[in-house]
Amino acid sequence: MNSRDFDLVAAVEEAFERLERSTLEFEHRPAQARMARRWAELLHHRGVLAVEAPTGVGKSLAYLVPALLLRAAGSGPIVVSTHTKALQEQLITRDVPLAARALDRPVRAATLKGRASYLCRRRAHARLRQRRLFAGAGGALDGEALERLESWIEQTRSGEFEELATLGLGAGLGPASALAADIASDPIFCSGPDCDPASGCFAKAARREARRADVIILNHALLLSDAGLRQSVVAEAGALILDEAHQFERVARETFGVTVGMQDVARLAARTDARNGALRLLSRSLRRGRSAGVAERIVEADQAIRPVLDHTAALTRDLAVLLPDGVVAARLGPDVDLAAVSPAALDLLLGALGSLIRALERALHEAETETGALKPGSDDALAEGRGRVAAWIETEQALRAVVRLEERDHAFYLDRDERGTPRLNRRPLRVGGALRDSIFAHAERVLLTSATLAPEGNFAPAVRALGLDPSEVESECLESPFPLDRMVRSVVLEGSAPSDAAYVDGLAAAVSSLAALRRSTLVLLTSFQMLEGLATRLRAPLAALGVPLLAQAPGAPAAPLADAFRDRPGSVLLGTASFWEGVDFPGAALEILVIARLPFPVPTDPVVEARSERISAEGGDPFKELMLPEAILRFRQGVGRLIRSATDRGAVLVADPRLLRAGYGARFAACLPSRPAVARTPAEAAALIRDFIETEVLPCPA
Ligand code: SF4
Q1: Which one is the CATH code of 484-693: 3.40.50.2300, 3.40.50.300, 3.30.420.270, 1.20.1530.20?
Q2: Mind giving me the DSSP string for 311-336?
C-alpha cells in the first residue's frame, strides 16, 4: 500500500470520527466501520468486494465515505446503482448529505434517469404544430390541459415528466404514457449534433451534469439497458457500487430479454400511420402541387400497416390455443412447433413487416430526394419517420428472436399483456457473461452489497451468477447490529401443509386471532389465488373486530396500499410479490409479520423450468442450486421487513410446517431473527405473540 492509499484508510476513520463529533444522531457502529475499512482497502488495491450488510449496519454511509474520499483525491465520479427508487431517495436526502458532513466538504450528487423521462423540446414543438395529435392521444388532454402542457414545455428547467404530476397532468402524461413517448428524448428520433443547442436538451444536460457530479445515482435497469451510458459513466467511474445487488441478475435477465405483443405492434402502428402518426407529420410537410409522388408513397406506406396488424392479430389468436383462460404463462420449449400452431400467420407477419419497412423507407427516400417536395423546416418530420423505420426494424428483429425456440440458452414463453392478450417472450438463462463483458470488464473498483447476498454466508452462487469468479472476489458477511433475539419473537405454526385443502382455513384462523391483538399485521403470500382465498375468509371476522383489511389486487402497485397500511394502525395487509422486499414499515407501522408459505419459485414458471432443465442437463441439482437458494433469499427479504430500526419490536409467524418437518427446514429456521417457538394451533400462536408484544420492555440499545 503506498502512502496515498494508506491515507485513504486513515482518512475514512478520521471522517467517521468527525461525523461522530459533529452529528448528535450519529453514533459509532462497529459493523459500519468494518465495512468502510474493507471497502477503503479494496479501493486502494482495486477489484471486487461483496458485502452482506443487514438492516442497521448503515451500509450506504460505509460505502459513500471511502468512495467520496477517493473522488476527492482525484478519481472519476462514484456511480451507485440501486434497484428501488426508495433507496435512491434515501441516498440523496439522507446519506449523501451525511457523507458530505463526514468529509467536511460539499458533495455534488446527481440522479440519472432514462432518456424517456425527459422532454425533448424539439419533438414537442413539432407535435404542438399538430395540436390534434395531442387531443387524440387517448383523449388525455383537453384545451385547458393542453395549454398547461404547452406552458410547462416552455418553462420547465429540468424537463422531467415527473414534474407534470404537480400540474395535474400526471395521469394522462406520465413518463409511461403514449403521449409522453411522442415528445420524450429518444435516441431513435434524436437529431443529435444538428439539434439547436439554444432549445436546450434536458436529457443531455442531465448526463453532462451527472458527469460533473461526485456521485451519480441511477437504477439497475438503466445501467443495464443503456449501452452509451455504460461506456461513458462506468468506464470513467472512480468506483461502481451495486446496492441491492441481489436483484442485479434478475433485472439483467429482464433487460436482456425480448417481448413482442399485439399491444406493442398496435401502439407503434398508431404512432406511424397517416391518421395521427409520423406519416401524417410527413404528409403535412409536403408542398402542395410539388410532391404528388411522395404523397403516393405515403399512402402506400400507410396501406402497408393494415396487413401487419391483421397478421399480428391472427398470430395472437393462434397462440391463444397454447395459453388457455386462467393460465398466466406457458413455456414454449424446444419441442413446440410454432409452424404447427400457427402455420401461416408468423410467415405472413414477417413478410408484412418487411413490406412496411420497405414502403416507409421508399416514402422517406423520395421525400428527401425529390427536389422541393418538402416545406422548409421539415427535418422533424423526416426524423420522426426515420425513427419509426428503426422501431419497425427492431420489432421485426424481436419477432425473429422470440421464435428461435431451438436456442438452448434462452427460455421462451407466452404470457399476457395488460389486456390479457398473449405475447411472446425470450429471456436468457444466464447473464453472467454479458454482465462481465458489458459492466465488470470496464469497472476497476466494484462493490456488491445487499442485506441478502450470501445465503448461509456463501457468496459464491450470487457472485458466479453475475459472471465473476468467486476466488477473485473479496467478501465480508456482517452481523446484524441489533439484538434480534430480544426484539423479535419467532413462531412456527404446526398444522396442515400449504398443499392441503384445509391450509387456507387454518391460515385465516391464525390471522383472525392475530388481528384481535390490533397490531399492524402484514401477511406475505406467494400467489394471488391464495391471497384471494384468504381475503374471502377474513372479511367477515375482521369486520366484526373492526379491523381494516387491505388486500393487494393483481397488477396493483405496492406503494398506495403500503401508504394506506401506514395510515391505518392495527390493520391487516395481505400482499404478494412486491411486499416481500422494498417496502419499509418502521416502528409500530408493522408489528406482526406472517409468512404464509416458504417462498419457493413456482417450478412451472417458464424461466424457472428452463433454468432447472439447464442445471439438470449439466449434472446439477436444480432444487439445491436454484429453488432452495432463491427461496431462502426471498424468505430472508420477507423476514427483513419486520425490524427496520433499533427501537422496533415485533413477531414473525411462519405458517408453513415444512420449516419443522422438511430436511431443509433448519436452513429457513436459521434465517429467523430468534429461535422459533412452535405453536400447535392458531390460538396458541396468537397467545405466544400476544405475551411477547404486550410485555413492556425498555427500548433495545442500538
Ligand atoms: S439533442 Fe435529441 S433529445 Fe435533445 S433536444 Fe435535440 S433532438 Fe431532442
Answers
A1: 3.40.50.300
A2: HHHHHHHHHGGGS-TT---EE--TT-
Give the whole-angstrom CA distance, residue 144 versus residue 360. Answer: 35
In the chain, pLDDT over 70 holds for what percent of residues? 93
* Stated pTM of the model: 0.88
**Lowest mean per-residue pLDDT among 287-301, 575-589, 688-702:** 688-702
Is 127 a pocket residue for ligand 1 (Cβ < 6 Å)?
no
Angle between helices 96-103 and 59-72 (to 10 degrees): 50
pLDDT exceeds 80 at position 128: no
What is the β-pairing status of strands 677-679 and 422-428? unpaired
- Measured from the CB, is residue 190 less than 6 Å from ligand 1? yes
**Domain 258-429: which CATH number of 2.40.240, 2.60.40, 1.10.275, 1.10.10:** 1.10.275
For residue 115, the ligand 1 atom closest to its alpha carbon is: 3
Class for domain 8-108+213-251+432-477, per CATH?
alpha beta
Distance of CA 54 to the CA centre of its chain: 21
Give the C-alpha separation, 541 to 537, whole Å. Answer: 8
User: For 128-142, what is the mean pLDDT?
Assistant: 57
Residues of the chain with CATH 1.10.275: 258-429
Would the CB of 381 count as within 6 Å of ligand 1?
Answer: no
